[in-house]
Amino acid sequence: MKLKDKNILITGASSGIGEALAKITSRMGARPILTARRKSRLERIQNEILQTTSFRPEIIPADICKGKDRAKIQAHLKNKNIPLHILVLNAGITAHGLFEKLDMKVIRKTMELNFFASVELTSLLLPFLQKTQGTKLISFVSTPSGLYGIPERSAYSASKAAGQVWMESLRMELKKDSIRTCIFCPGYTQTNLRTSGLAADGSILKEEQAKNSHTPEKAASILVRSIIKEKRIATTNLSGFIVYWLRTLAPALLEKMIIAKTMKKPC
């Protein structure tokens, strides 16, 4: 897939991987359409892209967890007659805590944003992809912990795993429409996920960045290559690659490795 002159709608585009993806793809000749809750940040990114390219990205301030906002995104494309080539479902939230201590509202909120909001938005935008000529693509930004459940990440892992299986189903169903899917599982990345996610009781997380984290630009560049190559699934580091293969070839060994890494002290 070539990105030049392709319209690429990115959710969660106001920071992190979404912001980096918008800037990288615009430099490659793509036309990003940015959506996120924070209008001021979208306007900043819009202006920064305009300074380095001749293209002014479309911005759509919206909370994709709200039905009226999802309809707003759909109406924006329809009213401006904008064809859609690539949809990147990047918006998400993390949740940390032992299952026995998790407030059920935390699980529901995590599933709502990471899974249901993406599903419902895709349902609204699918007709735009179907009527656009050539190869199209939907990418779901997931995590290696969606490939195999991680201790203290049950809500997060479950929400991303649901999205991954959904993508696998869509890939087969939409092949007739020349629509591909790409599951992107970035390892630790320097985003605000750890300072905007949810603790077990529903409060906001305040955790330091993980060691050896990728920059958002690095993760986004890998995602861009994965989109161009139309990869079914892509990871950003060796850990993700190991999880992907060991979950089927040696699940018992994988479980031991995960426990040794994540549960070093009594909870």
Keywords:
267 residues; Rossmann fold; 7-stranded parallel sheet
Uncertain segments: none
Q: Major sheet, described briefly? A: 7 strands, parallel
- Count of β-strands: 7
Amino-to-carboxy terminus distance: 47 Å
- Strand-residue fraction? 5-15%
Largest sheet strand order: 3-2-1-4-5-6-7
Q: How many structural domains?
A: 1
What sequence of helices (H) and strands (E) makes up the elements? EHEHEHEHEHEHHEHH
Class computed from helices, strands and strand pairing: alpha/beta
CATH H level, superfamily name? NAD(P)-binding Rossmann-like Domain
Mean pLDDT: 92
Helix content: 40-55%
Shape: globular
What name is given to the CATH topology? Rossmann fold
- The count of helical stretches stands at 9
Task: Please give the CATH class.
Answer: Alpha Beta
Rounded radius of gyration (Å): 18 Å
CATH architectural label: 3-Layer(aba) Sandwich
**How would you classify the quaternary structure?**
single chain
Question: How does the SSE layout of this entry go?
Answer:
Elements: E1 7-11, H1 16-27, E2 31-36, H2 39-52, E3 58-61, H3 67-79, E4 86-89, H4 104-131, E5 136-141, H5 154-173, E6 179-185, H6 193-196, H7 216-228, E7 233-235, H8 238-249, H9 251-262
Parallel strand pairs: 1-2, 1-4, 2-3, 4-5, 5-6, 6-7
Helix pairs in contact: 1-2, 1-7, 3-4, 4-5, 8-9
